[in-house]
Amino acid sequence: MAEPSNDLPPAGGAERPPSGLTRLSERVRRIIAPNPSPFTFTGTCVYIVGEGEVAVIDPGPADPAHLDALLAAIPGERVARIVVTHSHRDHAGGAALLKQLTGAPIVGARPHVAAAAPTRADAAHALDYAPDEALEDGARVAGRGFSLEAVATPGHAANHLSFALVEENALFSGDHVMAWSTSVIAPPDGSMRAYLASLEKVARRSEAIYWPGHGGPVRQPQRTARALISHRRQREAAILARLEAGEASVAEIVARVYPSLAPALVAAARLSTLAHLEDLAERGLASSDGAIALEARFRRA
Questions:
Q1: Are 231 and 199 within 8 A, CB to CB?
Q2: What are the CA-CA distances from residue 242 to residues 113, 281, 288 (Å)?
């Protein structure tokens, strides 16, 4: 099952990308994995970078039929690198199988380190994901006619990377910035503080277009990143207002801050609200009656 990777409301216009192999630019093609859901939109975007000798960015879920279709879409071409933005199953689940099929090394996000006591956030990760090379911020992946620069963007996941396509002034943004929705931040792996810092980071960069992990392109990326920051600050203010009104549980806060939310999205909203409360507690603006968890009681500090 794909990670519930998106929150409501949408951050902007939402193009519905076609499912077949699509030419996006001189160096970039895309195919959509068949895993649509309320949390993945039309499915995971799998990007093919280069010609003849290619890098595959985020191969998608561990679905043999999907990976067979991916390889059938690029006949006669060699997969030279499998590049992973983060280890959630809807992005990295198919990496090991694609490596078996092609012999290509896996590079990108470091493996997820599970908590001592398993959590919902741990369950979202492909626990068999094992890169041949974990990349740090600023590392380069060289290919035939292209180069990808790793941009550390933790928040949605602690190991999240985006990748700048240097020759086209574009950014593969994974689940960090999307045009159709904002990202769920699920503690303890996800961090609201890290997410906001990563949004500030990409807003200062120069890329002219983002190719996200779900949905169509982000065509005004700096404006979108700033809008996401504003959206999160508005959510923060609403949560503080609910604490001041005496609502102390995550469930109570979500019921007021996310009115008329579809039942399937309530759990995701609770996780992002918990991430806000964790950040507020770290900043001394809220406190809890014990460990910060979905079951805790919170108050305005």
A1: no
A2: 34, 15, 14
**Helix, strand, or coil (residue 85):** coil
| CB crowding 11-31: b at 16 or more within 10 Å, else e | bbebeebeeebeebeebbbbb
Say if CB 297 and CB 251 are below 8 A apart. Answer: no
Write out pLDDT tens, residues 75-113. 999 999 999 999 999 999 999 999 999 999 999 999 998
Least Cα distance to 110 among 155, 61, 148, 157 occurs for 157
CB hemisphere CA count around 195 (13 angstroms)? 29
Indicate the pTM of the whole model.
0.93
List, for residues 15-24, the tens digit of each pLDDT value: 677 768 999 9
Contact between residue 270 and residue 294 where contact means Cβ atoms under 8 Å apart = yes
Residues 257 and 238 sit within 8 Å (Cβ to Cβ): yes
Q: Sketch out the chain's domains with CATH numbers.
A: 6-228 (3.60.15.10), 232-300 (1.10.10.10)
Tokens read off for 64 = 């043999």
Alpha helices in the chain (DSSP H): 64-72, 89-92, 95-102, 120-123, 192-203, 221-244, 250-257, 266-282
Q: What is the pLDDT of residues 133-175, one digit of tens each?
A: 999 999 999 999 999 999 999 999 999 999 999 999 999 999 9
User: What pLDDT is stored for residue 14 in this prediction?
Assistant: 61
